[in-house]
Design a protein that fits this description.
Helices cover 24% and strands 42% of the residues. The chain is of the alpha+beta class and 146 residues long. α1 packs parallel to α2. It comes from Methanococcoides methylutens MM1.
């Protein structure tokens, strides 16, 4: 049973990083999944939220949307050297056979004197992926390749 105040927790995994993120809404669970993934790589409490990225995604289902969401954030981290510390998923909707996400991520350019990179996340995987409603709210489970 999950604690209703728990935002995310890391699970045992032999080689990669696996976590569950929770929320009262699916949007909140997606936000907490992003925090969990970034805390694998960097201490998000040291990230100043002075740069924002608006993100709009569409995918065939909620699982693909979750992978696309985290993969998009990872892409921006790797290509634009932006580390995020705050995530706001404004909406997740289903229409015309697609799941759509509208979100904003806030952070700053990576400064290696300020931001110590802990573990490299190479990719978001579909391994044991879950996005589901629970009696307490919503839960997503993600494994990232490290």
């Amino acid at each position: 049973m999950q604690n209703s105040d728990l935002e995310y927790e890391y699970l045992e995994h032999t080689a990669d990083a696996k976590f569950r993120a929770y929320g009262k809404t699916m949007e909140e669970a997606f936000e907490n999944a992003a925090v969990a993934m970034f805390n694998v790589m960097i201490n998000t409490s040291k990230v100043d939220c002075i740069h924002t990225e608006d993100i709009e995604l569409a995918a065939p289902d909620i699982d693909d949307l979750l992978v696309d969401w985290l993969s998009e954030l990872l892409f921006i981290f790797e290509v634009d050297f932006i580390s995020f510390g705050k995530f706001e998923v404004k909406s997740i909707t289903q229409e015309d056979g697609e799941c759509k996400l509208s979100a904003r991520a806030s952070g700053e350019e990576i400064d290696l004197e300020k931001h110590e990179i802990d573990t490299e996340v190479k990719a978001v995987t579909y391994n044991d992926l879950k996005a589901e409603e629970t009696p307490e709210g919503f839960m997503v489970q993600v494994t990232v390749d490290t």
